[in-house]
Structures are given as structure tokens and as C-alpha cells.
What we know:
By secondary structure, the chain is of the alpha/beta class. It has helices at residues 19-27, 68-71, 92-99, 120-128, 144-153, 172-177, 191-199, 212-221, 231-238; strands at residues 3-7, 32-39, 45-47, 105-110, 137-141, 158-163, 181-184, 205-206, 225-228.
Amino acid sequence: MVEIIAHRGSSGDYPENTMTAFKEAEKALADGIEMDVRFTKDKQLVVIHDETVDRTTDGKGKVSEYNLADLKQLNAAANHPNHPKKEEILTLKEYLDWASKTHLILNIEVKYSKDTYFEYEKDILNLLANYHLGDRLIISSFNVDGLAKIAKLAPQVKLGLLYSKKINQPEEYISEYGIEALHPSKKLTNKELITLAKEKQIPIRIFTVNKVKEMERFFEMGCTSMITDYPKLALKVRNKKIL
């Protein structure tokens, strides 16, 4: 059965990467949640996608130029049209304190920037070690060097390579960098790639699939996981309850 992974939580209907979006994804019976990690000026790990706070909050500037205390004053739902309630930017610890008590697959996307500090991956792994997530944990990134570093530090952790530009022979990254899975964009994913992944026994998780016809197509192809902003809709499509 194709797993349904909620992209930044139920982000199609709720403010992305917030506790509300995560709880709604669990309530929708998603199989897992994908979310994003960055770091603050004082090297605290926080849950936010963009390099700046501009798009999703009422603040301005880079996440890495805020101390955590100041970041916590911002409203992560400020720019959402239908969510009047204030949402705090979560720390990774706050997210894991909640998520570790669920049965969800936890896909953590590690985000990088030019000012990424040297111990970043180690700090993430040290925090994750407190939660004993086992096979439920997936770390993904577009940064192959970062994934390779994580593979050396924690070879037991499942890693997924995100990519939105065509890669020739993507399966070669698996052996070369210690990566377990491919996470291609939907535009790069076809039957041939999924067949190749199955033949090589490589998990393949596709992002970001939001339309019914696309969902039907990828369910039929039989990918490992589908990452979507609308997990409730995807569940209906998977269960063939869409008229």
C-alpha cells in the first residue's frame, strides 16, 4: 500500500509546519508527516521551511539571524487566509515531544544555507537520539553532501535524496553516498523510474502530489510514498471514495 505523507502537515488547509497542521494530519489518518528543520542565530533547531520568515510569519529576515526567543514572538499563521489563531514556530524538540508519541512515519527534511554551522547535523542527530524512533525516522535533504555526512555519523538512519532536477542514474547515489531512498519531484517521476526503484529495492517517495488525477496515477504506479499537502483527500483517493 502506498503511504501517504503529509507535507509540512496538512498544509493545504492549515498553516504549514505548525502544531495545528501536524495534529490535523494525524487526525486525517496520514501514515506520516514531512517537515523542515533550520537553525537560529543561537543554534537552536526550529521547524520552518524557508530561509527567511517573510512568507509564513509576520516578521522579516533570515531565520539564522533570529535568536530563538525573538523567533518565538512571531506568528507562524500570520499570512494564512483562514487561520486567525496565533501559531508559534516550533522547536524540533517540541515537535518530537509530540510526534514521538504517535505512530506516524517522521520525515525530517534538513535545510541548508550559506551560514550553516559545522555541528548542525550532529546537533540534529544528538536530539533525535533521545526519542528512539527506529524505522519510523527518515531524514531527507536536497543537499547530498549533508546526507553523506549524516550517513557517516549515523549509518542506521534512513536517508532520502530530494531532487527536482533530472539526475542520470539516480540509483548510483544510493551506494556512493549511503542514501537509502529517492525523493523525486512528481515532474521527474514516471513509470520507468518507479519500476527501476522497485527492481533495485529502493524506496521512492514522490513530492508534492495534490490533485486527484495525479494521486490516482501514482497510486496505480505503486510508489513507496506520496507526499501531499492534502492527506485527507489522498486517503479518500487511496480508498477509492472520490466520486
